[in-house]
Design goal:
The chain is an alpha/beta fold. It has 2 domains: 39-197, Metallo-beta-lactamase, Chain A; 205-312, no CATH class. Helix content is 40%, strand content 21%. It is built from 10 helices and 12 strands. Strands 1-2-3-4-5-6-7 form a 7-stranded mixed sheet. The chain has a 5-stranded mixed sheet with strand order 8-9-10-11-12, with helices on one face. Helix 7 links the parallel strand 11 and strand 12. The longest helix is centred in the N-terminal third of the chain and has 29 residues, at 2-30. The chain is elongated and about 65 Å long. The termini are far apart. It binds zinc ion.
Length: 312
């Protein structure tokens, strides 16, 4: 009797799976680009929210996935459009439309990858399909090395690389410096600086009024904070981010102050003999409650600093 019930259950389960995959197929057909059928498109689904001109001819796009807000950017130069981080296939599809709207008839002259994390740099193939298969992709040399070892089918390989010494590119009338400020966050972060426009772009290791990601896994917090302070010395006025609305040096300072406050609280908790759980429960930082993802990740940030200071 029990056995036959189990059989019935198994039958229902496989029916369920079949109809689920049928539903997936229907969704794929409904997608704008059903031909890109992998994780790069569908795992990290981005919804386009807005575009703003953050400096003359510099455009910032806002996207939302299931967890948080992402930002990417492009600059319109006299030699064409230069894109900073395509993000994903779905984000790049939205970006194609925005580029055609803001820079009608312009080619895409280059794509720059900020670092090797795929949640920021997938989608180049969509831009290349729309604007030309030979568009150069520029990245840090360790980004290319990483993808030459670890094949990721939805990431287009960088065609030009930059070392730790950095490099300056000229796209028509627009100079773009790719600066390397130091080993932080995958040791592959290029910071693009547009000196004429007084614009710089930083990703992940410093954000615009956003708390750190979950419990800051694997992050050397001393290195992180040192690089954040170094970023204050970048010669620019407008700072664009991978996460967080565009800001300025005051925005950078708030991010530094936030991490510094966490560090001070963690040290106080350890001095008072609190456990990690007590610390996570007791600490709030009212001045930063408005930061994005505070409700979800602040506790993880507290735990990360507690552990870091405890193991010092
Ligand atoms: Zn990253």
């Amino acid at each position: 009797m029990r056995r036959s019930k189990n059989w019935v259950k198994v039958g229902v389960l496989s029916l369920g799976i079949m109809s689920f995959s049928g539903l997936l197929q229907a969704n794929h057909l409904a997608e704008k680009s059903a031909y890109f059928n992998d994780r790069g498109t569908f795992y990290n689904r981005f919804d386009f929210q807005a575009v703003q001109e953050t400096a003359p001819d510099v455009f910032t796009l806002t996207f939302k996935n299931e967890q948080e807000l992402y930002y990417n950017h492009f600059v319109v130069t006299s030699a064409g459009v230069v894109v900073f981080d395509p993000l994903s296939d779905s984000a790049a599809e939205a970006m194609v439309d925005v580029i055609r709207d803001k820079a009608p008839g312009q080619p895409v002259a280059g794509i720059i990858y900020s670092h090797l994390h795929t949640d920021h740099i997938a989608g180049a193939r969509v831009l290349r399909k729309a604007f030309g298969a030979d568009i150069p992709i520029i990245a840090h040399e360790r980004t290319r090395r990483y993808f030459s070892i670890r094949k990721v089918p939805f990431i287009d390989m960088p065609t030009e690389v930059v070392g730790d010494e950095g490099k300056t590119y000229q796209f028509g009338d627009t100079e773009i410096q790719l600066q390397y400020l130091g080993d932080v966050h995958t040791a592959s972060i290029l910071v693009p600086v547009l000196p004429d426009k007084r614009v710089a772009y930083t990703v992940d290791y410093i954000n615009g009024d956003v708390v750190g990601w979950t419990d800051l896994p694997g992050i050397n917090l001393d290195v992180l904070m040192a690089q954040q302070r170094r970023t204050l010395e970048v010669d620019a006025d407008i700072f664009l981010f991978g996460h967080g609305a565009p800001g300025n040096k005051a925005t950078l300072q708030r991010q530094i102050d936030y991490f510094t406050a966490l560090q001070i609280e963690a040290r106080k908790a350890l001095a008072a003999g609190w456990t990690e759980d007590q610390t996570a429960e007791r600490i709030e930082l009212e001045d930063y409650r408005h930061f994005s993802n505070y409700e979800d990740w602040f506790e993880g940030n507290v735990r990360a600093f507690y552990r870091w200071e405890k193991n010092r």
